[in-house]
Amino acid sequence: MKHQLLALAAVAGFVVACSGSAAPSESSTEYSKDPLLTLKTESAGLDVEVRTLPSQPPVLGNSSVQLIFRDPATGEAQSGLDLQVVPWMPAMGHGSSVTPTVTETEPGSYELTGLVMFMPGTWQLRTTLTGPVADHVVPSFQVR
Amino acid sequence: MSCQASRFANLPAWRVPSWVSALALVSCLTQRAAAQACCAGTGVVTPGRLALHESALVGVQLKAAAEIGSFDAHGRYAALTRGGSELDLEQDAFAAVRLNRHAQAALLLPVLETRRTSATQSEFGGGFGDANLNLRYDFTFAGATKTIPGLGILAGITFPTGTPADSSRIRPLATDATGIGAFQASLGLAVEQVFGPWLVNLTGVVAQRTARTVSQSGITIHEHLAAQWTALGAVGYVFPSEAALALSASYTAEGDATIDGATAPDSSHRTTTVTLAGLLPLSDSWRAQAALFQNVPISTLSVNQPALLGGSLTAVHAWL
């Protein structure tokens, strides 16, 4: 019995120290002046700026994302786009059950609301553009 | 089975391989700790491995794990952000039956629950997970001779009986997600040997999942996760009372996934897990098992993975 208790006690005493930490992001109600990332659409090469709320980069839970599309030659905002967006975790092989709502808040500026990123890790916004420009773009960022 | 170990000299020969169960438990936990509930591929190693003298067993395992942080796509570890938390609970019912002296089959039926919080939301949900069927064939047995170790081949299949996270039935924080939404086939090779009261197990497993096609908002995503490779090393010690302790470490690696035929950058995985398990024989037919496991929270040891710290309690009833 002594050895049996020793076996269970050893299991109970199993501790591995933690290391590393990340400073929590500051919450905000306005998008940052600086984008989280910039990229181009796949075919037309529109410039895309990505910003997030309530924190940038985004954290677990409910987030909003601002996507601004510009013509790379003229710098003019690309308005009138119809965006379809599916959040996706490529490393996990799944998305989210919640589809974000897309609203053009200013010409060329589109806001995604109701975006729920429930797990830490790499999330993609697999985005299809229709309307004046037919294209695809996949912003990708880390969620903590 | 004969055994060279003096430690086992006072034990009936058929009782010697009781440690097998402890190592099987370690192996199972290591596999399942590789990802949180919604994404976990069920372990290829039988949860309730039969010792040589046993003909069948049934068992129940209760598990709990808390998320303590996560590793990003570059292996950088960070603790959870303020307001974020996750607690994974799991209750597994399993059964194993001996097909002949060398072969055994096992079935695992999991029930999963998750409590998840963010800065503004809190949610609890669960349901039936992905069922898992395993086969094990032992060509040779550990301890039978000094020179030839035990050698076994493992094969398993996981059925998508759970609900994937992107199902329309799932709530926003996906706490009722209980499956990966794909079949998973696994194949492994286990080598083990006894050295006195010590036992050593090395297991390698490769797992492949079928592709998934998901359509939302007019967008169709066809993703195929890469093959997942796992190496497990475990060392156990058997006390004269037949109580046993086992310490294991596992490393799982998976390449980038493929989405719509193109490689998805930063989608690969690595996971390093340590597990300490104990086994306590209660009678000839009953045994209790306990284990603690952790995804080691050191940067670069894991990639694209939450870090979990958890434990389990298991009760097993076996028939001779």
Number of E-state strands of chain A = 10
Radius of gyration of chain A: 21 Å
The level 1 CATH classification of chain B is Mainly Beta
Q: For the report, how would you describe the main beta sheet of chain B?
A: 12 strands, antiparallel, barrel
Q: Over the alpha carbons, how many angstroms does the gyration radius of chain B reach?
A: 20 Å
What is the count of DSSP helices of chain B, taking H or I runs of 4+ residues? 1
Helix content of chain A: under 10%
| Helix content range of chain B | under 10%
Shape of chain B: globular
Mean pLDDT of chain B: 84
Oligomer: heterodimer
Mean pLDDT over all positions of chain A? 84
Low-confidence stretches of chain B: 1-23, 25-46
H/E series of chain A: HEEEEEEEEEE
CATH architecture of chain B: Beta Barrel
CATH topology (level 3) name of chain B: Lipocalin
Short description:
The complex is a heterodimer of chains A (144) and B (320). Chain A has 144 residues and is mostly beta strands.
Explain what you see.
The complex is a heterodimer of chains A (144) and B (320). Chain A has 144 residues and is mainly beta. Chain A is 8% helix and 44% strand. The radius of gyration of chain A is 21 Å and the shape is globular. Chain A starts with a helix and ends with a strand. The model of chain A is unreliable at 5-25 (pLDDT under 50). Chain B is globular and about 60 Å long. With 320 residues, chain B is mostly beta strands. Chain B has a single domain (32-319), classed as Beta Barrel (Lipocalin). Chain B has a twelve-stranded antiparallel β-barrel.
List key phrases describing it.
heterodimer, A: 144 residues, mainly beta, five-stranded antiparallel beta sheet, 1 helix, 44% strand, globular, B: 320 residues, Lipocalin, twelve-stranded antiparallel beta barrel, four-stranded antiparallel beta sheet, 4% helix
How are the SSEs ordered, and which strands pair?
The complex is a heterodimer of chains A (144) and B (320).
Chain A: H1 2-12, E1 37-40, E2 47-53, E3 61-70, E4 82-89, E5 94-95, E6 101-106, E7 109-117, E8 121-130, E9 135-137, E10 140-143
Chain B: H1 19-32, E1 56-71, E2 77-79, E3 85-98, E4 103-117, E5 122-128, E6 132-140, E7 150-158, E8 184-195, E9 198-209, E10 212-216, E11 219-224, E12 228-238, E13 244-254, E14 258-259, E15 262-263, E16 269-281, E17 286-295, E18 305-319
Antiparallel strand pairs in B: 1-2, 1-3, 1-18, 3-4, 4-5, 4-6, 6-7, 7-8, 8-9, 9-12, 10-11, 11-14, 12-13, 13-16, 14-15, 16-17, 17-18
